[in-house]
Design goal:
This protein is α+β, with helices and mostly antiparallel strands. About 45% of the residues lie in helices and about 15% in strands. It has one domain. Strands 2-1-5 form a three-stranded antiparallel beta sheet, with no helix packed on it. Strands 3-4 form a two-stranded antiparallel sheet.
Length: about 230
């Protein structure tokens, strides 16, 4: 299935294009408001988690990959997942581990390990079991002739997360379920916020897609559409 969108240079967004049965393109306007921003934030988090889950599923289905590719994907999984729990400019919300993994101690342990890998290995040069190094002195085994033979650098970098993929998948799914719950919980306030908008004011701000700027992309079967709802309100 193809999706039709237009890139709005002012908003810096790929805006989905809707059309009427007669072929006319629907004008659009960005929804402003507290709850609209919160819903947008959780949809953005949901999109990041879905991408994380897609990478996990790909690695599960393709265990024989070059080491450098696997290492890069594992780092991307850790970074993308951790991003959802980090306050960032442009997002009105972030996930809190205590809320997401409430009464799920086993998942909290996995979550903390992932955050530790992110903080002390992938994004920062920390100390610990994931990224360690030292200069090793080798001594002459002949105690009658004590001397330094060689000095060699030795390091360890945690690269193979294969055995941990199942755990990564579980915390990702738990986070997705929590995000879906938050979006549904916000829907009542969001709908009230939208219903209170003045239609005349909205029509003053609309933009109409230019047909020459339309782009057509194929839906990724591994990714759900997270930008809904894509329907015309009655």
């Amino acid at each position: 299935m193809q999706r039709v969108s237009v890139f709005d240079k002012d908003l810096f967004l790929n805006v989905p294009v809707l059309s009427m049965p007669d072929g006319k393109l629907c004008p659009y306007v960005i929804v402003e408001g507290k709850f609209s921003k919160l819903v947008t934030a959780y949809h953005s988090i949901q999109s990041d988690l879905l991408e994380t889950q897609a990478m996990i599923n790909y690695l599960k289905a393709n265990s024989v990959l070059p080491g450098v590719v696997k290492a890069a994907m594992f780092k991307a999984i850790i970074t993308q997942y951790s991003k959802c729990f980090t306050k960032a400019w442009g997002r009105a919300a972030k996930l809190e581990a205590k809320s997401v993994f409430d009464s799920k101690e086993d998942l909290m342990v996995i979550h903390k390990e992932v955050r530790d890998i992110r903080n002390n290995y992938i994004t920062h040069a920390g100390t610990g079991r994931y990224d360690n190094g030292a200069m090793i002195i080798y001594l002459d085994p002949n105690l009658d002739n004590p001397a330094i033979g060689r000095i060699i650098n030795s390091d360890f970098k945690f690269m193979d997360h294969s055995l941990k993929l199942s755990g990564y998948d579980r915390i990702c799914q738990a986070a997705l379920q929590y995000v879906e719950f938050k979006i549904e919980k916000l829907s009542v306030s969001y709908d009230k916020e939208v219903d209170a908008l003045d239609l005349k004011d909205l029509y003053k701000k609309v933009k109409i897609p230019n047909r020459k700027d339309l782009s057509f992309t194929k839906d990724d079967a591994n990714m759900r559409n997270t930008r809904g709802p894509h329907y015309l309100r009655d």
